[in-house]
Design brief:
The chain is of the alpha/beta class. Helix content is 28%, strand content 30%. The protein has helices at 13-21, 33-38, 56-63, 75-87, 121-129, 131-134, 160-166, and strands at residues 46-50, 67-72, 93-96, 109-115, 135-146, 171-184, 188-200. The protein binds S-adenosylmethionine. S-adenosylmethionine is lined by residues 16, 27, 32, 51-53, 56, 72-74, 77, 98-100, 115-117, 119, 123.
Length: 202
């Protein structure tokens, strides 16, 4: 007998547009707390945020003095990100693009951030594989992502071991997988297994 596993549903840009059309900020207006904890030791410069959504992390980084580029395929999310930046008196550059087509190697980034962007594995492997070239020497990669509870979700919600392989030869400053309590807007509330990586190009 063969068993089949149902793949995690694809969530295209219209799914995210619909979520971001709701009132308020789906993940809050405050930055992700793991990013916040890394920030004091991050070298200022050009920052790229992958799957930025409604702008909470991009605006936070811009307020710290980073020159921020935010990429997302949700027009609605990026419009809210621009409005949030304006409200805080900072500028961010927004690029509406699917990460599957996005090339980050045209620039030398001091920081690349991926907070709950959860692209599928082929996209992650290509993008995270570019990190060792597209990060400036000494530049950092900061990631937090959900870890799937069941094997069918591993493609989009992989554990730390998979992610560590995908980022290639970066120097790990912090790498942890744990069950923790999220409190970020309406959609990230309660216990969640996550992977956190803070890594640096030598
Ligand atoms: C869970 S939300 C997280 C948003 C934001 N990083 C945060 O933490 O507030 C996932 C985000 O990734 C974006 N995203 C997912 N897949 C993407 C893809 N293939 N290309 C571009 N953006 C994508 C979605 O539009 C959404 O904004």
């Amino acid at each position: 007998m063969t068993t089949s596993q149902t793949p995690a549903p694809l969530k295209g840009s219209s799914y995210w547009d619909a979520r971001f059309q709701e009132q308020g900020f789906a993940y809050g207006e405050e930055p992700n707390d793991f990013l916040l904890s890394c920030a004091p030791r991050l070298t200022r410069g050009k920052a790229l945020s992958l799957g930025e959504g409604e702008g909470r992390n991009a605006v936070y980084l811009a307020k710290l003095g980073f020159e921020v580029t935010a990429v997302d395929f949700s027009e609605v999310g990026l419009q809210k990100a621009q409005a949030l930046a304006q409200q805080h008196g900072v500028q961010i550059q927004c690029i509406c693009a699917d990460l599957k087509d996005f090339d980050m190697s045209h620039e030398s980034w001091h920081l690349v951030v991926s907070v709950f962007s959860q692209p599928e594995s082929a996209v992650r492997q290509r993008l995270y594989g570019q990190l060792s070239q597209s990060l400036h020497p000494g530049g950092a990669f900061v990631l937090e992502s959900k870890v799937g509870a069941d094997p069918s979700g591993k493609e989009r919600y992989p554990g730390l071991n998979v992610l560590r392989q995908e980022i290639g030869p970066l120097h790990l400053i912090h790498a942890r997988e744990e069950e923790r309590v999220l409190s970020e807007g309406r959609y990230h509330q309660g216990p969640q297994r996550t992977a956190q990586i803070w890594a640096q190009r030598n």
